[in-house]
Amino acid sequence: MATLTGFQQDRVGHFIEKDPYAVLDYSLDWTNWMPTGDTISAISITADAGITIDSTTNTNYIATAYISGGTAGNIYNIEYKITTTNGLKDSRNFRIKVVERQI
Question: Closest Cα to residue 63, out of 46, 44, 76?
Fold first, then answer.
């Protein structure tokens, strides 16, 4: 499983909150899942309509998406798909709950 930091969990699965104005990076660390000697060679990150994947990047074990937009009160599914140098493929999903953040 990918390592998650800052995420919350409910009965449906993992989610993280985001303000509609925020442009933030969301990273999944695949180190604990990745077989020894294997690394990420390609990523594909997609999102439900209404929220935007601005850009993506990856290192040997971490896939990152910079995400913007969304409408307060809506929940969006984000899917990370990776392919490794040894040809393994895997996918993980989480949700972003867009909320107007307060101090």
Answer: 44
List of domains in the chain: 8-98 (2.60.40.2310)
Taken in order 34, 61, 95, 79, the sign of the CA dihedral is negative
Q: What's the whole-model pTM score? A: 0.88
Per DSSP, 35 falls in state: P
Nearest-5° angle of CA 45, CA 51, CA 54?
55
Please state, in angstroms and rounded to a whole number, the distance separating the CA atoms of residues 59 and 29: 9
- Dump pLDDT digits (tens) for 51-83: 999 999 999 999 999 999 999 999 999 999 999
- Give the 3-state secondary structure of residue 19: coil
